[in-house]
Amino acid sequence: MTGPPRARRAARGRDRTDPAASRSERSPRVARRSALAAARPPRQRTRRSGEIKPGRRGDEPVRARRPAASRRGKKRGVLRELTDREREEYFRGVQPIWGGGLNPDRFVAFQRRLADSREAAQRYRLFGLFDGDRLLSAMKAYDLGGSYAGEPLRVFGIGAVYTPPSLRRRGHARRMLELALAEHRSRAYDAAVLFSDIGGAYYERLGFRALESEECTAEADDLPRGGTAHPAGPGDEDLLVRIFARARAGDRELALARDGWVLSFQLRRLRELARARGMVEPEWGIHIVQPGGEAAAMLRLSREAVDVLDAGWTNAELREPLLAALRDFLLRSGRSRLRLWPAHQLRGLFSPRPRPGAIAMVAPLRPDVRLPGAGGPADFALLDHI
Fold first, then answer.
1. Which residue from 25, 29, 26, 27 is spatially nearest to 8, judged by alpha carbons?
2. Dihedral of alpha carbons 214, 220, 221, 222, sign
3. Which of 336, 346, 341 is nearest to 304 (CA)?
4. Alpha-carbon span 108 to 18, nearest angstrom
5. What is the spatial distance between Cα 178 and Cα 186, in angstroms, rounded to a whole number?
């Protein structure tokens, strides 16, 4: 009998107990096949892919390595607007991050009213990345106007990027943003703008560049005394829009337009937030009108500060009276300080420092668009942080 010694011993052992062994002894061809099978290494099935791989006796199972393209995974997902049910899922997801102290039900109701408001129509939308009906990631999208170096810009604003905790670190948010940027690029937008609370590195990999991002604070003792102003109320929106637009005439830094929409949308947000907290019309601004010019400020009350969302004057002689009126508002509100972003006429009034969050970032959406370089200045006011 031919074959390795191990095969011959195995065959002799089978001769004593197995009738088939005696038949193989009488058939050289069958014997040779049995000997080769005994000498061949066993085949093992991998757990992951089900492929068969050769191995040696006593070896651990061998896992087949998938092709590189398969290991990277296919880019999945479809970008589309959220339905009403999906909006609620998104709002409940972001509530622990941006809830502003509201409980989940109040926060969802507040966000629903804002999204369904007249001010939001056509310029504020909610998008998500989906795998079938499963929400993988979601975001807010804004249709904004802007300018840089005297040239108008059509701007795609991005806000509140969110991925459910169980789906994070899988590239879903990146895929969603890639699709959203491509979509707005195809629709002739010039640039995309966002304010990052996670630093700049993540968005830089998507083509964004971080811009100068500073804030200032001022206490009552830093402000002049003796100012009075009229409180802004319903119907004063156009007055403030006109003052802010005139105050920034001729500016050439990157800025969002004061066409009235950003102010009206932010005011709707303040009113709906006050409603969610059981309050009446919020105090949201002051203005001064004199024969020689006008001045105004749009304001928001936070826990410890009065946020100056935007401010400006059409005559330099009204700067001190407006700052004095801000001091009076600060004292009446019981807050300890003003907070603002140094933009336009608010630059140079107080010592700035880098912002800990809301890092301004911009990305070009066409190759020939002019935008500031990394670290360059930008005239974004707190009003623009939507």
1. 25
2. positive
3. 336
4. 76
5. 12
Point out which residues pair with 296 in neighbouring strands: 287, 312
Instruction: State pLDDT tens for residues 253-310.
Output: 999 999 999 999 999 999 999 999 999 889 999 999 999 999 999 999 998 999 999 9
- Ordered by where they begin, the domains of the chain are 1-35 (no CATH), 77-214+356-384 (3.40.630.30), 215-353 (3.40.630.30)
Band of pLDDT at residue 1, cut at 50, 70 and 90? very low
H-helix segments, 257-373: 261-276, 319-333
Q: What is the mean pLDDT of the chain?
A: 86
Q: Are strands 255-256 and 134-148 parallel, antiparallel or unpaired?
A: antiparallel
Joined tokens for residue 246: 């005139």
Q: What are the tens digits of pLDDT across the range 217-237?
A: 999 999 999 888 999 998 999
Residue tagged 């500060």 (tokens): 305
Using the structure block, give the residue that is written with the tokens 């105090």.
Answer: 283
Contacts 24+ apart (CB under 8 A), 381-384: 381/309, 381/310, 381/340, 381/341, 381/343, 381/344, 381/346, 382/300, 382/307, 382/308, 382/309, 382/310, 382/339, 382/340, 382/341, 383/262, 383/263, 383/266, 383/298, 383/309, 383/310, 384/255, 384/256, 384/262
For the chain, the first-to-last Cα distance in angstroms comes to: 87
CB atoms within 10 A of CB 2: 10
The Cβ of residue 305 has, within 10 Å, a number of other Cβ atoms equal to 18
Place of tokens 């050439």: 252
In terms of DSSP bridges, do strands 151-162 and 305-313 run parallel, antiparallel, or are they unpaired?
unpaired
Q: Strand, helix or coil at 269?
A: helix
Q: How far apart are CA 34 and CA 32, in angstroms?
A: 5
Question: pLDDT by residue (tens digit) across 156-191?
Answer: 999 999 999 999 999 999 999 999 999 999 999 999
